[in-house]
Write a structure and sequence with these properties.
heterodimer, A: alpha+beta, 2 domains, 6-stranded mixed beta barrel, 15 helices, 10 strands, B: alpha/beta, Rossmann fold, 6-stranded mixed β-sheet, 7 helices, globular
Chain lengths: 404, 224
């Protein structure tokens, strides 16, 4: 019954659409992961800190005297206490929380880098390089030098690439900084990092927590933020709200801080799926057309099959069988070609200054895409076959045979 | 005598474009082993009657019994089974499936019936082809043989399930004299030697005259 050439064309249609579906999704999702990784992987899921805001609740409000009114104007923010109260106790408690994957302490110092007569404003983040690497892939962005040296080298610093270029220093060189309180320090460059966001690289540098505490002349429990990474990112808003109340600090979750990334990712995914599914539906129409033509050509055969005892159901299943064979064959070919094409794209060099860790185009080899692809090719070809098959099953053999 | 086919008060109308009575209150029966020809002028309703009797056309009034069993009018699957098992068809046009070879064409209804294994069906198909003297063509594609040969293949296909009755609609209508005689001889042989019941629609009077019994129709009625 099969028309080989036509069936092959139909199968190629399915193959093409599945190939594009797989490639598109793998590439898009690879790109999504890359872009998300750019910010989201380096962003804590929940960040505990003390925000600089004017206090709504002024002490005078606590006076319960109804005979007087107080009017307080020009309330100013109080920045005297940026560190987190009782940070060690909070850290111990959070570490025991089963939802938490890990946490890192952080403090920030605003300093001037002295370069001859010019002072460059920048910040130094005090971090624990091991935790930072474990949770936020810090070492991936350290393009030269070693992040672990922050702990080994006394007064070591890792400079942003832009900052290092401005200061014209390299690993092993010393830089001089002045703190906002006027203290002067000598720091030794142990590495250069490149985050992929140029504005960061121009004004940021990293040192160990101890070093920064020394620069700021604060005690060793002084930290300005606790950055928590959760096992499940979706729990972040709930955890943030809970911590905010529990520890009486400000807490910000990743969804609030980076809502635009979530939106971007989901829209890109939506577009890839709709393009892929459109391709499949077009291929489905191809199969529908070819089977319809086949039925017109095979009227006689269908009539004699029915006359010699094949029921409408048998005829229908023959056509659905043909359609599904086309779908499965084309779909499997599409999976193989889609994998091949993705692998090929994966080899194409993709060098960009802003993404030091990426050498080729990103591809996500998620097996789900393949499963969705084959299921969709099965479903579309089934329906593409079902309508012509139903038509074939309703052919009246008497009409055909008498017509001759 | 055992009645293979019995029609009781069959009425048949064509509805399009206007309601016309094609078969009028027609009753007759065919006994086992009879070689019956159904003749009449063009448009007298003989082919229409044949399709009613063949169970392919269910839009009629009256009762049809095949092998003593009343045929329902609605159950398409059941009727298909009856056609497969109890009726063999030979049409004016051979209706072989070109993609298959001769042997596969003959085997097709047998495989559908699934009473025998594939090997057995193949063996039986070869026997039928041998009986009709076309066993040498078994492996040829159906569109690579001559018209007379095609009609003999179609007869072999009709015989594959040992049907109770073979129905033919002008089976010699497309054939030349020599092939017509050949086909007639085969039918005759089937009737005489194998006690095969046959009901053949024909307007070829020389064909009809040589059968056991002639049913003559005119204007939807049997006149003799």
């Amino acid at each position: 019954m099969a028309r080989w050439k036509q069936s092959l064309v139909a199968a190629i249609g399915v193959t093409f659409s599945i190939t594009m579906f797989i490639t598109l999704l793998s590439f898009m999702s690879g790109l999504n992961d890359l872009l998300d990784g750019l910010i989201l992987n380096r962003t804590p899921h929940v960040k505990l800190y003390n925000d600089i805001t004017p206090k709504i609740e002024q002490p005078i409000n606590k006076l319960n005297d109804t005979n007087v009114h107080n009017f307080i104007g020009s309330v100013k923010a109080d920045a005297s206490r940026q560190s987190i109260y009782n940070s060690n106790a909070i850290i111990n408690a959070i570490e025991k929380d089963p939802r938490v994957l890990g946490l890192s302490r952080k403090l920030t110092a605003q300093v001037f880098f002295n370069d001859g007569t010019i002072d460059i404003t920048a910040s130094i983040f005090g971090i624990d390089p091991n935790q930072e690497t474990k949770l936020y892939h810090f070492d991936e962005y350290v393009t030269s030098g070693n992040s672990a040296d922050l702990n080994k080298v006394n007064n070591g610093i890792i400079l942003g690439k832009g900052l290092a270029e401005k200061l014209l220093v390299n690993i092993g060189d010393a830089v001089q900084i002045t703190t906002s309180k006027g203290n002067i320090f000598q720091l030794k460059v142990v590495g250069i990092f490149q985050s992929g966001v140029k504005d960061f690289d121009n004004v940021q540098s990293y040192a160990s927590i101890n070093t920064v505490q020394k620069i700021l002349s604060v005690p060793s429990d002084y930290i300005t933020s606790i950055q928590v990474k959760l096992k499940d990112i979706l729990q972040a808003p709930a955890v943030a709200a809970a911590y905010q109340q529990l520890y009486e600090t400000d807490a910000e979750d990743i969804q609030t801080a980076n809502s635009q990334f979530e939106t971007g990712s989901s829209i890109r995914t939506l577009i890839s799926y709709s393009v892929g599914i459109t391709l499949l539906i077009v291929a489905g129409f191809g199969i529908y057309n070819i089977l319809n033509m086949m039925i017109f050509e095979k009227m006689d055969s269908i009539a004699i099959l029915k006359a010699t005892g094949f029921s409408g159901k048998d005829v229908k299943s023959i056509f659905i069988y043909i359609a599904i064979s086309i779908g499965i064959f084309g779909g499997l070919m599409g999976l193989v070609l889609g994998f091949g094409l993705s692998a090929l794209i994966d080899q194409i060099p993709f060098n960009t200054a802003s993404l030091p860790t990426i050498a080729t185009y990103p591809i996500n080899y998620n097996p789900n895409f393949y499963i969705i692809g084959i299921i969709f090719s099965f479903i579309t070809t089934y329906f593409a076959g079902w309508f012509p098959a139903r038509k074939a099953s309703k052919i009246d053999p008497v009409v055909i045979i008498r017509g001759k | 005598m055992e009645k293979i086919l019995e029609a009781k008060n069959i009425n048949k109308f064509f509805h399009d474009p206007v309601r016309i009575k094609v078969i009028e209150d027609l009753s007759f029966s065919i006994n086992k082993g009879e070689f019956v020809s159904l003749t009449g002028k063009s448009g007298c309703g003989k082919s229409t009657l044949l399709y009613v009797l063949s169970t392919m056309d269910t839009d009629y009034e009256g009762t049809l019994l095949i092998d003593g069993e009343e045929m329902p009018k609605k159950n398409e699957g059941f009727l298909a089974k009856i056609r497969n098992e109890k009726i063999g068809f030979v049409f004016q046009f051979h209706y072989l499936i070109n993609e298959f070879n001769v042997l596969e064409n003959v085997m097709l209804p047998g495989l559908k019936l699934a009473k025998y294994s594939k090997q057995e069906v193949e063996h039986r198909a070869m026997e039928k082809l041998k009986m009709l003297g076309i066993d040498t063509l078994a492996l040829k594609k159906a569109n690579h043989i001559s018209g007379g040969e095609k009609q003999r293949v179609a007869i072999a296909r009709a015989l594959i399930n040992d049907p109770h009755i073979i129905m033919g609609d002008e089976p010699t209508g497309n054939l030349d004299k020599k092939n017509s005689d050949l086909v007639f001889d085969i039918f005759k042989q089937l009737a005489d030697e194998f006690k095969q019941t046959l009901l053949i629609v024909t307007h070829d009077s020389s064909f009809a005259e040589r059968t056991h019994r002639i049913i003559k129709m005119e204007d939807g009625k049997i006149i003799s």
